[in-house]
Amino acid sequence: MKVAVVYDKSNLDEARELMIQSVYNVLSKRYQVQLIAFEDNLFEKIVMFDAVFNLSTASKQIHVPVILELLKIPYTGSTSQAHAICIDKVKTKIILSYYGIPTASFISVDIKEQVPEIQFYPAIVKPSCEGSAKGLDADSVVRDYDSLVRKVRDIHTRFKQPALVEQFIDGREFSVGILAGEVLPILEIDFSTLPDGLERFYSYRVKHEYGDHTRYVCPAQIDEDLERKIKDYALKAFEVLGLRNYARMDLRVKENDIYFLEVNSLPMLTPNYSDIIKMAQAAGYSYDDLILKIFEDALRYHER
After folding, report:
1. Contact at 8 Å (CB) between 112 and 92?
2. Please, what are the domains in the chain?
3. Across residues 132-138, what is the average pLDDT?
4. Among 23, 35, 194, 241, who pairs with 198 as Cys (CB 3.0-4.6 Å)?
5. C-alpha to C-alpha distance for 104 and 114, rounded to whole angstroms
6. Is residue 59 very low, low, confident or very high in pLDDT (cuts 50, 70, 90)?
7. Residue 74 pLDDT exceeds 70
8. Cβ atoms of residues 122 and 196 within 8 Å
9. Parallel, antiparallel, or unpaired: how do β-strands 51-55 and 2-7 relate?
10. DSSP string covering 53-103
11. Cβ atoms of residues 78 and 243 within 8 Å
């Protein structure tokens, strides 16, 4: 079988380069594999392959599935429709709320729209359609109207997209991953070990500069009832959002109340770095096991 590993060369960093090479190395043990960058001539190149492992970034993760769906080529990850929903945090939260999956109170403020007063301070302000903690800074948590307006306008200026204003849940942070229909052990992200003065949430600098200072506990030390509820909600979210193969969801818990915050329909798969890797390892999967399970689940889906 000829397999293409498709990636976005315009958005590469050390972690992504390691992910791309690592996935290539795993698949090469069983298949004839080639790395293919997303370019204008992708359509012409990709028809030579039997299947695709999609490692595109947020800006391209919709485009790659659209092309592959047109060509009827099997690929890993969710459909273009599911990615389009999950990239937009506002749409995701609307769907989660509709299906009874608990999420924090929120509003969306479009560009040039007057910023309304809210009833759920403290609030956190983020871009509605960015990943990897982009736009999340030390001043993203606001506690009064003036700060809210400044941060919303900052998001509009920097990202040219609506701002999501969400109730800030001052509680424990968790991430839950799903792999081929299996809910992996829940991961707790403990910010208490960060240096003094740093924000206690996944801001851009905490995520990308202080990962070594953050404590990860997997499986999370929570009671069976809370674990069951989180896993049940995660499976339901996976289903109603139309996700496939694998995904990761971020949530917070305060006084045993659960709040699902975001859904990553194409989480990174970097060894010894990505959260879903930590969860898979806790479930007994090696890195090779994880990559092959994702790929084989994708092939089974397309054989239905």
Report:
1. no
2. 2-76 (3.40.50.20), 105-167 (3.30.1490), 172-265 (3.30.470.20)
3. 90
4. 194
5. 22
6. low
7. yes
8. no
9. parallel
10. EEE--TTTTTHHHHHHHHHT--BSS--HHHHHHHHSHHHHHHHHHHTT--B
11. yes
